[in-house]
Amino acid sequence: MTLADALSRAQIVATCTTATTAFLGRHDSAGHLHRRRGRGPPQQEIEPALLASSRVVVDALEACAANGDLRVAIEAGAMVREDVHGELGAIAAGTCAGRSRPEEIFVLDSVGTAVQDAGAALHVYDRALATGRGVAVSFA
Q: Is the pTM above the cut of 0.85?
């Protein structure tokens, strides 16, 4: 299966690469895209146009503006910080709305706030199991 095949079938796409050139663009329209990377040398996975046409959430605005794909979109003139919908913590706390329409592309640009990553993963895992979509995994 090619990347294009996988993307055309996916509702959620999660990435964690060391790519330095974007490989996800506007034609890659999964409903939710989670882009995760650590701090370090400049990396990019998402074309600025995809970010600009999506509802963007970050784990930490200042960190993503300095190190995330958001940085690339800002430098390209495709976005400004104020275009960011909100921070992940605000969505988890219920003070910022999450994805509201099935056709909406929702992007999480995360540079690695570990406690938020773990909390978000647990929430998604629990919801998947509760709706019969997940697979129980034992780490014992």
A: no
